[in-house]
Amino acid sequence: MGKDVADLIVGVLGGTGDQGRGLGYRLAAAGNPVIIGSRSAERAEATAAELGSGVRGMANADAARESDVVIVAVPWEGHRDLLASLAGPLAGKVVIDCVNPLGFDKRGCYPLPVQAGSAAEQAAEVLPDSRVVGAFHHVSAVVLLDPEVTTVDLDVMVLGEDREATDLVQALAGRIPGIRGVYAGRLRNCGQIEALTANLVSINRRYKAHAGLRVTDV
Amino acid sequence: MGKDVADLIVGVLGGTGDQGRGLGYRLAAAGNPVIIGSRSAERAEATAAELGSGVRGMANADAARESDVVIVAVPWEGHRDLLASLAGPLAGKVVIDCVNPLGFDKRGCYPLPVQAGSAAEQAAEVLPDSRVVGAFHHVSAVVLLDPEVTTVDLDVMVLGEDREATDLVQALAGRIPGIRGVYAGRLRNCGQIEALTANLVSINRRYKAHAGLRVTDV
User: Fold this and answer.
1) How many CB atoms lie within 10 A of CB A130?
2) Chain B within 8 Å of A206 (Cβ-Cβ)?
3) Sorting pLDDT into bands at 50, 70 and 90, what band is A5?
């Protein structure tokens, strides 16, 4: 890619949701150019204006085209169709999937069954010309969006098949103060990382926390 | 149960394997009476003698009968049949399943599909009169068995349906120096905790580590 990680333009598809806004906010604060993508260019622009730090807003396809690296933060419902429609603009790029396919009922949160094995593997299926990496699953949007929080206390697990791509995403994660990117396996091991978010929801409920994970001995 | 957690007799089914030996060693060192169970009483006795600290060895059924709390550390293959055969002696007891259904191939480690959802849920299916808790999935046997390691640096995620049982297992985990037991959800969220061991294997391979997890903000 050639560019330094600090100069990479980061697009965030579904960037008007909590997770997307939080990641866009933190990466822009770290100095990366950020583009919020949304189905509606107007809503993307409104979110961008709200986030400040020079963040721009565009329709998803334009955000995909203009960015060097793209974070997928769209709702699980519609994930496959949206990505399939963007296979052209996303070709050749590193695509970071942070989607957690989860359901909620009166007993709490639980992982939804995913035919491809994981959201990240589904992304890889419909984006054969992109380098898909799974990451940023466990970061709390509440924490990311809280301007009082100056250090985010967790490790981001980074999964993928391509060493150059996972190294890049680890470095990008590490630009957010407090966060460390840790390589955590191939995409076939991403399903349990996504599903683990249901456990963090259970932990948060029991302990009134915004739990994250740290990997010890690394 | 009435007894203090320090006085609970802990049985370890499949206690001659690395994980079972490691947990037996640490809990005996913490002062709990420990019984190693095995298909063969002779092998159980040999392992018990090797572990010292007053650990006893018995056939699995006797170990189940004599113990207050039972850790299931048997191989995934045969897990269902062994537990079904012990439903009688395990009735009314807290049964801690730490089994990780994993496969290995030349690309590394991956989670096996489990019809019940998880080993812990399979245990609950065949032990309807026991209180099944999932825990101790991520502790490295190498670390547990290393007498040079005085503090084990990780949190044990504890999952179950019964608050009294998960509280007890959290307290039991906390008896091993360095370990903290953290409630991490219902049994339906245990599959990804078991599968996550495949990610720890990937992390260990990449970083030459014995990785564990800590939960932040708790």
Assistant:
1) 22
2) yes
3) very high
What is the CB neighbour count within 10 angstroms for residue B204? Answer: 17
Q: A75 at the B interface (CB within 8 A)? A: no
pLDDT, mean of residues A143-158: 96
Measured in angstroms, the CA of B150 and the nearest CA of chain A are apart by: 14
* Residues of B with Cβ-Cβ distance to A215 under 8 angstroms: 203, 211-213
* B106 Cβ neighbours under 8 A, 6+ residues apart: none
- φ, ψ at B193 (rounded to 5°): -70, -40
Q: B2 pLDDT exceeds 80?
A: no
pLDDT classification of A2: cutoffs 50, 70, 90: confident
Q: Are A212 and B216 in contact (CB < 8 Å)?
A: yes
State yes or no: pLDDT of B1 exceeds 70: no
Q: Could you tell me the pTM of the whole model?
A: 0.97
Contact (Cβ atoms closer than 8 angstroms) between residue B119 and residue B80: no
* Average pLDDT, integer, range B69-86: 97
Residue B41 in contact with partner chain A when CB distance is under 8 A: no
> Counting one residue from A and one from B, how many pairs have CB atoms under 8 Å apart?
128
Q: Are B34 and B58 in contact (CB under 8 A)?
A: no
Q: Which of A188, A196, A206 sits opposite B196 (nearest CB)?
A: A196
Give the residue from B93, B78, B83, B37 showing the smallest Cα distance to B60: B37
Q: How many CB atoms lie within 10 A of CB B57?
A: 27
Give the mean pLDDT of chain B: 97
Strands B155-160 and B131-134: antiparallel
Is B117 an 8 Å CB contact of chain A?
Answer: no
Residue contact A212–B210, C-beta within 8 A: no
ipTM over 0.85: yes
Nearest to A215 among B157, B198, B213 (CB): B213
CA distance B70 to B10: 6
- For chain A, the straight-line distance linking the first and the last C-alpha, in angstroms and rounded, comes to 27
Find where tokens 């019984």 sit. B35
Tell me if chain B has a CB within 8 Å of the CB of A182: yes
φ, ψ of residue B202 to 5 degrees: the values are: -65, -45
**Whole-number CA gyration radius for chain B:** 16
The answer, for A141 touching chain B at a CB cutoff of 8 Å, is no
Rounded Cα distance, A194 and B87, in Å:
34
Q: How many other CB atoms sit within 10 Å of the CB of residue A151?
A: 9
Tell me whether residues B189 and A110 touch, CB distance under 8 A.
yes
